[in-house]
Amino acid sequence: MRGYFGIGIHGVNKPFNIGNLYRTAHAFGASFVFTVDAKYSKTKGHKTDTSKAVEHTPFYSFPNLEDMMLPQGCQLVGVELTEDAVELPSFRHPTNAAYILGPERSNLPDSTIERCDHIIKIPMKFCVNVGVAGALVMYDRLQSMGRFAPRPVRAGGPTQELAPTGHGSPRFRLGSPFEQAPPSVAEKWDE
């Protein structure tokens, strides 16, 4: 899969939510994880992060939104239930993205929403746990940007193998208008 992504939470205060999100981000291959204005005990957060994600994935702790720095060309994608948010199944993920989720029992602050390049929402009746929401966003990114066999028409697994990648044999272009093109398949049949 091309590009990279990071994921984080603004204003998190429950250590188990951050640990769960980081473990899931590590499993999905996140390039970095982060917090903005976090208020949690890092020692408790590590108890739910059984994969020790912060030892394998860069972690950034920004004290506030103004101090948050993203790589150049990285688009910030807010995950929030707003009227004008794009529903996740209809969203085309940026190649380079950082996803930011809101805190427990609250929404992303307006200042964060204003800074986002995109706002997406998971089409549900009500909010779910922040770790679950993050997992759904990362799964959707993987599913929509990854390389998988097409879904079959009937229920069940793939009916065809995914074609192998490769460059194949070389193809040559005619360099000069005076060069003669190789005979076409139709011409070969006429011989």
What does this structure look like?
With 191 residues, the protein is α/β, with parallel strands linked by helices. It has a single domain, classed as SPOUT methyltransferase, trefoil knot domain (Alpha/beta knot), CATH 3.40.1280.10. 28% of the residues lie in helices and 17% in strands. It has a 7-stranded parallel β-sheet with strand order 3-2-1-6-4-7-5. The longest helix is centred in the C-terminal third of the chain and has 16 residues, at 130-145. The radius of gyration is 23 Å and the shape is globular. The N and C termini lie far apart (46 Å).
Concise summary:
This protein is of the alpha/beta class and 191 residues long. The protein has helices at 15-28, 42-48, 53-56, 110-115, 130-145, 185-190, and strands at residues 4-10, 32-36, 59-62, 75-79, 86-87, 96-101, 118-121. The chain has a seven-stranded parallel sheet.
